[in-house]
């Protein structure tokens, strides 16, 4: 896993150098669009169940809470564009440099999910959460899925979350550097 740590750090540093102008531009545009500071943080569950602050570009008017569902009418048009292309997640390069995250791994969940894992499911917490990974790729349209069901919280808790746990356990048990590279390529493509 040392290769993973070195790879994450070097790639995040290089990308941050090249994307700092884009990040600043998105923060300014988001600030004007939402009328609140365009960069915000949320508490998420990370390695060993420790809580950390994840950085994102603001995409909604009003407070963005630590919840699994969002009120779609609060998402701005610019915010929707940023979310559709995952541009709102670029500031997470800072989280990688800080050592909170990796490029590939289980998605860092809001409090009340990963921190409550039991038994062998806690294997997910033995690695850093990632910007992308197999569960993120499978559920890249999670917001659409949740907005199309009658009870999004029930659906998340009883359908999506158990499947993501299973996918992430498999990822941790069968981790390889080449698989990580493959997930990064699939995410970009």
TrEMBL record:
Source superkingdom: Bacteria
Keywords of the record: Membrane, Transferase, Transmembrane, Transmembrane helix
Residues in the signal sequence: none
Coiled coil (residue ranges): none
Keyword field contains Transferase: yes
The keyword DNA damage belongs to this UniProt entry's keyword annotation: no
Domain Bacterial sugar transferase: 4-188
Family: Belongs to the bacterial sugar transferase family.
Name this polypeptide is given: Sugar transferase
The organism's taxonomic lineage, starting at the top: Bacteria, Pseudomonadati, Bacteroidota, Flavobacteriia, Flavobacteriales
